[in-house]
Amino acid sequence: MPGDTSWMDERFRELSAQNLQWDPPTLESASTPRCRMDGEAMIMLSANNYLNLTTHPRVVAAMIEATKEFGAGSGSVRAIAGTMEMHLDAEQTVARFKGVEAALIYSAGYTANVGLIPTLVKGKEDVIISDELNHGSIIDGVRLTKASRAVYPHNDMAGLEQSLKEHSDSDRKLIITDGVFSMDGDIAPLDEITSLAQEHGAMVFVDDCHGEGVLGETGAGIVDHFKLQGQVDFEIGSFSKALGVQGGIVAGSESMRTHAINHSRSWLLSGSQPPGVAAAQKAAVEVLMDEPEHHRRLWENTEHFRSQMNSLGFDLGQSTTPIIPVMCGESATAKQLSAGLRENGVMAGAIVFPMVSRDKARVRNQLSSGLSIDDLDEVLRIYEKVGKEIGLI
Ligand SMILES: Cc1ncc(COP(=O)(O)O)c(C=O)c1O
Q1: Nearest to 272, CA basis, from 78, 66, 72
Q2: Which of 135, 183, 210, 321 to mutate to test the pocket of ligand 1 (most atoms within 8 A of CB)?
Q3: Domain covering 18-47+292-389 assigned CATH 3.40.50.300 in the classification
Q4: Model pTM?
Q5: Where are the chain's structural domains?
Q6: Is the CB of 106 under 6 A from ligand 1?
Q7: Which CATH code of 3.40.640.10, 1.10.10.10, 3.90.550.10, 3.40.50.300 fits the domain covering 57-290?
Q8: pLDDT digit string (tens) for 60-113?
Q9: For residue 126, how far is the Cα from the chain centroid?
Q10: Which of 131, 203, 293, 341 has the maximal Cβ count within 10 Å?
Q11: Is 241 marked active-site?
Q12: Phi and psi of 92, rounded to 5°?
C-alpha cells in the first residue's frame, strides 16, 4: 500500500489559491530570439541566451561530432573513469578565456555553488558574509555549511565592512556575491569588495553566471570589467547562459582546482558531462573569443532597448546590463503586463514573490545579440500599447 501523498495536492491547491504556482510553457522551436511557444510565434526576452549561441553552427557541430565519435554519455563520474579529453580541453579553454590558472567543469552552475562553498569553510570558527540578494544556489551552498553567517544589505559596502569588523576574530572569512544580480540586472561593486577583503584578510567568491560573455571588453566577465585579474579567489560560471550550452564552471587557481576535485561532493558524486556537451562548451568559448561581434551587438541592442524604454516612461530599476526589469510594484500588475505582452507575441516573464519581495514585482527582459533592431522596435511598440492599456505608463 503506497503512503498517503494527498498532502501534495493540498499543497498545490494552496499555492494556486495565492497564484504562486508554476505552469511552465513549452518551447516548440530552438531557443532563438524569434521562437515558438505553446503554438504561438514569440519574440523571446526571457532566455539567458545573451549571445545567441544556442544554435551557433560551430557549437552545434562540435556537439554532434563528439557525440558520434565518443557516444552519448561518459559512463562514470569524473574522478573514477569519466574524465575525457573533451572535459580537460573545455576547462583549459575556459581558463585561458577568463585569464585564470585553472578551471573545473561541474554539471551545472547550481551544483558548482552548492559543491564548492561547503569546501571553503569548516565550522562556527569561520564566517560566510553574503549579499542579501545572492542567487538561491549560493544560499543553498551556504546552508550546507556549519560556518557562521552574516548577510549585508544589497551592494552596501558600509554593511559589508561592518560585518567584516564584527567577525574580525573569525578564522576563515569568505565574502560571496553575485556579479550581475539576475533579478535586477545591476552589478556588484567588486572593486570595493576586493579591497575590503584585502584589508580584512577575507577570500572573495563571485558568481559570474550572468556576467560571463556579457561584462568586460570581450565578455570575459566581471573580473575583467573591473580589471581585478588575480584578486578574486573563486569565480563561478555557467555554460547555460551567454555560452548557450549547459554546465557549470569554477575558475581560479590550480590549488583551488585540486582542492575542489578532492573535496567537492557535487563534483565527486555525480556523473560527468556527456562528451558532446563538453565539446560544445569548448566550442562556445572559442566562438566568444573568435567572433567579438556577438558581444558588441548584445550591448548595442541593450542600449537601444534601455533608452527607448526610458523614453516611454517605464521604470527600469537599477539595471546597467542586458537584464532589464520593468518595475511594476504589485504582483498582479506584473502578471497583467507579462500576459498582455504574450498575447501580442512577446515572451517576457513576470517575476513575483517569493522570487522578489511582494512590492517589487516586475517583468524581466533579457536582451540577446540575435535580436534585430526591427525585432526590438516591434517589442517597443507592444510595450507601449500594453503599458498604456494597463495604466503603467
Ligand atoms: C546567479 C546564478 N547563479 C547560478 C545559476 C545556476 O546556473 P545553472 O543554470 O548553470 O545551474 C543561475 C541560474 O539561474 C544564476 O542566475
Answers
A1: 78
A2: 135
A3: no
A4: 0.96
A5: 18-47+292-389, 57-290
A6: no
A7: 3.40.640.10
A8: 999 999 999 999 999 999 999 999 999 999 999 999 999 999 999 999 999 999
A9: 27
A10: 341
A11: yes
A12: -65, -35
